[in-house]
Amino acid sequence: MTAAATQSDEQRYDIVVVGGGPAGLTTALYGARLGHETAVFDRGGGRAAMMQDTHNVIGVPESVSGNEFLETARDQLRSYGGAYRREFVTAIDRHGEAFEVETTDGSVLADRVVLATGFSDARPEPPLPRTGRGLHYCLHCDAYMFVDEPVYVMGHGDSAAYVAMIMLNFTSDVDLLLRGAEPTWSDETDALLSEHPVDIVHEEVTGVRNGEGGWLEALKFENGAARDYRGGFAMYGAEYNNDLAVSLDAELNDDGTVVVDDHGRTSVDGLYAVGDLTPGHNQVPVAMGQGAKAGLTLHKSLRAFPKSLDELETDGRVTQADVPAIADALRRQAGAHSSAEGD
Hints:
Layout: E1 11-18, H1 22-33, E2 38-41, H2 66-79, E3 83-85, E4 89-95, E5 98-103, E6 106-115, E7 119-121, E8 135-136, H3 139-142, E9 151-154, H4 158-166, E10 174-177, H5 187-194, E11 199-201, E12 205-210, E13 216-221, E14 226-228, E15 231-234, E16 238-240, H6 243-247, E17 271-273, H7 284-302, H8 309-315, H9 328-342
Parallel strand pairs: 1-2, 1-6, 2-3, 6-17, 8-15, 9-10, 9-15, 10-11
Antiparallel strand pairs: 4-5, 5-6, 7-16, 12-13, 13-14
C-alpha cells in the first residue's frame, strides 16, 4: 500500500491473527465469540496440518487427521462470524494507532495483531520414511506408538542424544543415527550417553523399506546392513517463523522464540504471539490454551464497557443507544447461531 492511502481505503478488523494453526484459530474463536471483528490470515500448511492422526487432545478421536481437525476449527470460527482468509501476510507496519497488515491479496488495518506463525522443523536429507508413517518430530505426541518397538533417532547434537535416551522409557531397542556426521553433543551428554543402552550407528542411510499402509519397516545403510524400525524421530533443530515479529522490533529470546508474558503480550503494544512461536511445549492443547488466554486478554483490552470514571467524565454517561457494543454483522450472526442451536 502507498503512503497516500487512507484508512477509509482498507477494511479494518479489531483482531487480525496471522497463522491458522490450533493457537491462532483458538485465539480467533475467542475474539469472534466475544464480539470483536476478527480475521485469520493463513498461508496453509504448518505442523498441525501434517498430523496423520491427532494425539493428546481430549474429545478428539485419534482417527482425526490434522487437516480434518483444522477444518472443523475453521468452520467453528466462521459460524461465529470470524473471517478465515487463505492469504500470506507479507508485512506488518504501524499505521497510526493501528497496524497495517499487507498480504498477497491487499491490505487491512487491525487494532490488535496476533502472531501464530510457529516454526518449521529442519528436515534431514533423503532417503526418508514417510512423515507420520515412520518419520516423526514430536516425542511427546508419538512416543506412545513405539512402546516395545525398534526406534531410531536421527541427529548428532545434544537434543538427538537426549531424545534417544528418553525413548528408553518406552522401548529397549533405540538406535541413534549419525548418518555420517560427527557428534556435536557436549562432553557431559557423551558421558550420559555412554551409560545408556543406545546403539550409535555412524553409517549414512541409503534406502527405506516400507510395509503395509506405508509404515516404515527398515532402513538400509551404506555398509549394506539393514535395520528394522517401526519409526523414529528427526532432531535437526527448527527455524522459528519470526520475521514479522522482528520487523516490528518485538523482543526475541536467544533461540528465536518471541518473548511474551503469561497472556501472549509481546514487548510491542498491541502485538501478541501464541503457539509454537513462543517458549514452551509444542503441543496442540498447550497452543489452544495459549490462544484462549490471549483471546480473553484481547477482549479485555478492546471491550467498550464498563467505561472508566475518566471516560465517563469526558464522554458522558452510557445511554441505551450506545449498547450493545458489538458490530451489527456479529449481532446478526449471533442471532442466527442461537436460532440454529435451538432447532
